[in-house]
Amino acid sequence: MVLNQASLKRDGVQDYVSLRASAIVLTLYALFILGFFLVTPVVTFEVWQGLFANMAMKVFTLLALISIAVHTRIGLWQVLTDYVKSARLRAVLQFFLYALAFGYVAVGLFVLWGA
């Protein structure tokens, strides 16, 4: 059997690995932010701005935003295919929910890199 590896089709293994990888990134990001709040006695605007002025933090936040987009896309697809039986309604819901998720990521990118 010949498999086309250049295909854009997804499969279960790719979804599984993508979900787990994005969950790990998001967990590490949440733990980092929690740790920051625990070790920083007073969080002021200047301290917060200083944290996000660091290039490593910007890259880590960008990775977290991409992980949110991946996790959202796969999760919505799984939930909608399980619970919405009408193909037309599912397509409409997927379009609007994916557009909303894209909007959140776009705003996050604008806030992160635009200032």
From TrEMBL:
Q: How does it sit in the membrane?
A: Multi-pass membrane protein
Locate the transmembrane regions by residue number.
21-39, 51-70, 91-113
CDD domains cross-referenced by the UniProt entry? SQR_TypeC_SdhD
Which compartments is it annotated to reside in? Cell inner membrane; Membrane
Query: Which keywords does this chain's UniProt record carry?
Result: Cell inner membrane, Cell membrane, Electron transport, Membrane, Transmembrane, Transmembrane helix, Transport, Tricarboxylic acid cycle
Identify the main location: membrane
At the top level, the lineage of the source is Bacteria
Q: Which cofactor does it need?
A: heme
> Is S-adenosyl-L-methionine among the key words of this record?
no
What is its biological role?
Membrane-anchoring subunit of succinate dehydrogenase (SDH).
Quote the protein name from its UniProt record.
Succinate dehydrogenase hydrophobic membrane anchor subunit
